[in-house]
Amino acid sequence: MLYTDKDKAIEAITNSEGKIHIIPDKEYKELLDNFKNTEIITEVEKRIDEKTREIHDRYDTDIYELTGEKKKPEEKTYQFLKRKITELKEKADSKDHDEEVENIRAKAQKDLQERDNKIQELLESMNKNELKAELRAAMNGLKFREDIPEKYKKKIIEDEINAIVEHSKKDGDVTRWKNSSDDFIGEDYRPLSAEKVVQHVFKDLIDLNTSFGGGGRPASVKKVGNMTNIEATKYLIEVEKLQSGTPDFQAKFKELTGIGSKDE
């Protein structure tokens, strides 16, 4: 037992039958200070350990809520945290890489498709221009009727050529001519030449007497006045933009066809 009171210490020494250890004041103070420091340090360490465990437990809980995974029994919290961060980073890097590759692939495919579309458009445009030039060349030497208004003839020619070009196609060295309603094929089932096509399509506009050395108009075309009924009607509606049956339409129709004249 430790005594700090002098009288009590003497009494204890007198009555004691065992060994007595006397500690000088200086040593006693050092011993007491060390004891107090040890107690304080132990308490502080205890508190630190408790707080550390509390923080680590909170980390473990947060990581579990985020990842759905608990740390291994032998694993320290900082080891667990480091492992999960590394795994998540690798996963994120892999995802970003995959997305980047996919974006590059998608853009490349889009660029290729746009290039192919432009090439196709260019080829189609060149093909149409070639067909149109072939038809125009085939019209050289044709004389069109002077009794038909010029702007009507131009519109009919342009519309017919565009319709033929839109539906025709080249098959090697052979051009298969057609429009929206007809395949231009001869009696031998071979495609007609461009010359035969324009002669057929524009037969109602062609002056047969000057273009082919005479012979008059085909019997299948009904001649009334200077223009056929069909020619006059089509011209007035499509070119003059007149409504059928109106006074202006009737007056123009008589002028073009000769119907109602003294010679009718």
Q: Could you explain the architecture of this structure?
A:
- With 264 residues, the chain is an all-alpha fold.
- It has helices at residues 6-15, 25-67, 77-138, 150-167, 194-201, 208-211, 229-238, 247-257, and strands at residues 169-171, 174-176.
- Among the domains are: 21-67; 131-257, no CATH class.
- Helix content is 63%, strand content 2%.
- Strands 1-2 form a two-stranded antiparallel sheet.
- A hairpin with a 2-residue loop joins strand 1 and strand 2 (174-176).
- It is rod-shaped.
Brief characterization of the structure:
63% of the residues lie in helices and 2% in strands.
Shape by Cα distribution:
rod-shaped
* Helicity range: 55-70%
User: Would you report the number of β strands?
Assistant: 2
**Helix and strand sequence:** HHHHEEHHHH
Backbone structural class: mainly alpha
Number of helices: 8
Rg over C-alpha atoms, rounded to the nearest angstrom: 55 Å
Q: What is the strand content?
A: under 5%
The main sheet comes to: 2 strands, antiparallel
What is the strand arrangement across the widest sheet? 1-2
